[in-house]
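Quick one, T. Sequence first:
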Amino acid sequence: MSKIKIGVLISGGGTNLQSIIDQIHKSNENGEIVLIASNKKNAYGLTRGKENEIKTIYLNPKEYEDSDAYNEALLAHMLIEKVDLVILAGYLKILNHKWIGQYPNRIINIHPSLIPKFCGKGYYGLKVHQAAIETGESETGATVHLVDEGTDTGPILIQEKLNILKNETAEDLQKRVLEIEHRILVEAVRYYCKHETFENLRG
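Structure tokens:
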């Protein structure tokens, strides 16, 4: 049985990427990362890929006429590598309709909140956790969801909660939520590699 070919899109440090490398790519799982792509030249996730002998590419959005042209160029690389499953691991751009059409129900994103709270345009990184604290939330968490043409609007696959501690800083909360992100993202990828669908995940 051939392994599920995984493509990962990143914009930053790639800690979620590293969890997939360690627990899926380098393990006995039925999945392998065949391509890591970034819209940021200095994204440390590219270094993580190179250190693990995974093909990496950087595409500069400024070199393309518009976002659609950029999306098409990026998608072409995924098709060349025959990617089966696409993972957004801290990727800060929106995929267009051609991506959704090419990979229906095969693109997932990890977001550091309990969607639908603190998601959508402008909610990324530390801003998410700061908002959760400032609005007096008692709990937060992370969400793995399918990607559609919106921003964090696709169907939810997995959510896991934690309580926000008294006097907790956004930085401390981010670290604790990141532990959840790593865990549930791996769970979702492992499920797909085994079943080749997300149907009935945690159902």
